[in-house]
TrEMBL record:
Name of this protein: Methenyltetrahydrofolate cyclohydrolase
CDD domains named among the record's database cross-references: NAD_bind_m-THF_DH_Cyclohyd
Single Gene Ontology MF annotation: methylenetetrahydrofolate dehydrogenase (NADP+) activity
Keyword Transferase: no
InterPro entries associated with the record: Aminoacid_DH-like_N_sf, NAD(P)-bd_dom_sf, THF_DH/CycHdrlase, THF_DH/CycHdrlase_cat_dom, THF_DH/CycHdrlase_CS, THF_DH/CycHdrlase_NAD-bd_dom
């Protein structure tokens, strides 16, 4: 059976280091990092993610601010909220919770976000610098960074390994594949048009699943001893659970357990690590803004 990567306790370790650094910053210069969140609409999953992020800020001593806008708001309202946070020197990180409602132009909004405050790493210049050799992005997207952190903390050497990323979204799959290349893995990408994906995954030493399809990756898709990072967080209706649903990953966990050597659970794997990376990016940004080392 595979060993389980305990993302929750790894994230807690990082969070306590961040809390320590925030305290040190406050004591020596009287400032704390600030994170601003812009949320449009009332998607239940987005609300949960945002709530968790804000709670984590509180625990770490990071100041958080939130602007909530209605589903039908105008693009200008989002851009105005964004400009205010761009100009506010007590804000070091700005997060526009995605996805935005259909009528809003996500690209236009992300273009306006200050590069220095783009703690999600979704600004095209940060993403471009992530893709280009010899350049360094100011911020690396949180979920991809969290996946790599989980691998490194589990003692996995990435260099020279065959990695497969399932999914190519701007926020997870694409930056994860770029980041794995930075760590010198040989990377294949699987997406909705890929034929016979199992033939590709079964050659991989490292599989990172981010398709948003519950139980997509079966046990027989995996090479024995593979390392599996499951990004998927798919709600499955279950009246016996507290909120009426439970979370299921993109990997058929029970089957994969028998084949893989290391695996992340859902929940308790990538999710907590993503939040830890967000706070870490916010702390770095504040340190950069105040020239605090
Ligand atoms: P998305 O819908 O934007 O992208 C999904 C990608 O998967 C697309 O590139 C698509 O081509 C590919 N895909 C879809 N069906 C496929 C199939 N049958 N076979 C192969 N590829 C397929 O989703 P996203 O925003 O990238 O999120 C992916 C998953 O990760 C979701 O379950 C989401 O909830 C989860 N997620 C988790 C975290 C976290 O912190 N744990 C963060 C972000 C997203």
């Amino acid at each position: 059976n595979a060993a389980i990567i305990d993302g929750k306790s790894m994230a807690e370790e990082i969070m306590s280091r961040i809390a320590f650094e925030v305290k040190r910053m406050k004591e020596s210069i009287g400032k704390v990092p600030g994170l601003a969140v812009i949320m449009v609409g009332q998607r239940r999953d987005s609300q949960t993610y945002v709530r968790n992020k804000i709670k984590a800020c509180e625990e770490a001593g990071i100041k958080s601010m939130m602007t909530e806008l209605p589903d039908h708001c105008k693009e200008d309202e989002v851009l105005n909220a964004l400009s205010r946070f761009n100009e506010d020197p007590s804000v070091h990180g700005i997060l526009v919770q995605l996805p935005l409602p259909q009528h809003l132009d996500e690209a236009k909004i992300l273009d306006v976000l200050s590069l220095e405050k783009d703690v999600d790493g979704f600004h095209p210049l940060n993403m471009g610098n992530l893709a280009l050799r010899g350049r360094e992005p100011l911020f690396i997207p949180c979920t991809p960074k969290g996946c790599i952190e989980l691998l490194i903390r589990s003692g996995v050497e990435i260099m020279g390994k065959r990695a497969v990323v399932i999914g190519r979204s701007n926020i997870v799959g694409l930056p994860t594949s770029l980041l794995l290349q930075r760590h010198h893995a040989t990377v294949s990408i699987i997406h909705a048009f890929t034929k016979n994906p199992e033939q590709i995954t079964c050659e991989a030493d490292i599989v990172i699943a981010a398709a948003g399809v519950p139980n997509l990756v079966r046990g027989n898709w995996l090479k024995p001893g593979a390392i599996v990072i499951d990004v998927g967080t798919n709600p499955i209706e279950d009246p016996s659970c507290e909120h009426g649903y439970r979370l299921r990953g993109d990997v058929f966990y029970e089957e994969a357990l028998r084949v893989a050597s290391l695996i992340t659970p859902v929940p308790g794997g990538v999710g907590p690590m993503t939040i830890a990376m967000l706070l870490s990016n916010t702390l770095d940004s504040a340190k950069r803004a105040y020239n605090f080392t």
